[in-house]
């Protein structure tokens, strides 16, 4: 009986500018993404070097998930409450999300 293997968990590592996984540089942040199917993902396990993750880094992360894995909706929780990857809703975030994700409701 044949088997099918599907990647459903991704480890994300954040690097400072000029640093990389390929160079084996230390990362400054890490998170886990679970692919839920239907172009949805759940992001959890955020660990950072103590500094907040800049908004542009979040947008880059969302773009990477869309381009590589076809993710158009990202879900997360913080302290047991539903959260968006960009935190507080801002008008500009909605515009960027619409451009990147074709209507992702942030």
Write structural notes for this entry.
The protein is an alpha+beta fold. It has one domain: Aminopeptidase (3-Layer(aba) Sandwich). Helix content is 25%, strand content 31%. The protein contains 2 helices and 5 strands. It has helices at residues 55-69, 91-101, and strands at residues 9-14, 29-37, 40-48, 73-78, 81-83. The chain has a 5-stranded mixed β-sheet with strand order 1-2-3-4-5, with no helix packed on it. Strand 4 (73-78) and strand 5 (81-83) form a beta hairpin. Helix 1 runs parallel beside helix 2. The chain is globular, with a radius of gyration of 15 Å.
Summary, kept brief:
The protein has 106 residues and is an alpha+beta fold. It has helices at residues 55-69, 91-101; strands at residues 9-14, 29-37, 40-48, 73-78, 81-83. Helix 1 runs parallel beside helix 2 (91-101).
Please outline the helices and strands.
Blueprint: E1 9-14, E2 29-37, E3 40-48, H1 55-69, E4 73-78, E5 81-83, H2 91-101
Parallel strand pairs: 3-4
Antiparallel strand pairs: 1-2, 2-3, 4-5
């Amino acid at each position: 009986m044949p088997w099918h293997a599907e990647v459903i968990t991704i480890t994300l590592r954040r690097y400072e500018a000029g640093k990389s996984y390929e160079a084996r540089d230390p990362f400054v942040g890490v998170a886990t993404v679970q692919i839920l199917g239907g172009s949805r993902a759940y992001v959890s396990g955020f660990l950072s070097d103590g500094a907040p993750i800049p908004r542009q880094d979040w947008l880059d992360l969302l773009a990477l998930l869309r381009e590589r894995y076809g993710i158009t909706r990202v879900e997360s929780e913080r302290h047991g409450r539903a959260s968006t990857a960009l935190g507080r809703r801002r008008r500009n975030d909605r515009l960027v999300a619409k451009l990147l994700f074709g209507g992702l409701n942030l």
